[in-house]
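Methods — Computational structure assignment.
A single polypeptide chain was analysed. Its primary sequence is given first, followed by the predicted tertiary structure written as structure tokens.
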Amino acid sequence: MENEKSLQKLTDFETKKSVHVSMSKLAHSEFRKKLFDFDLSMQEVLELFAILAGENDERVIDIMKQAKSLKRNKALQNLTNNEVENLYDAISQIDPFRGQDNISKNQ
């Protein structure tokens, strides 16, 4: 019995990979609630998702395309926010009463 457990642990170590996933508390709790409704674990669902992705399942590919789009939109939003901040910084350097910017005066 003990030898079987040791052998199984060794087999799992050699054949399985561990994955750490970080997500928001809200996403985690909503996911857990939904999994509970179906009596499933995250392990079971994520492993199936990985298998289906490897098989090019259209449903999974659509989810991956959606994730890529969300990631792209978030990156564009961050870029836009940075550009707006830079624009405000540049505007704040302009001295309308001197006809030149504050950077030139300090140099």
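Note: The chain has five helices and two strands.
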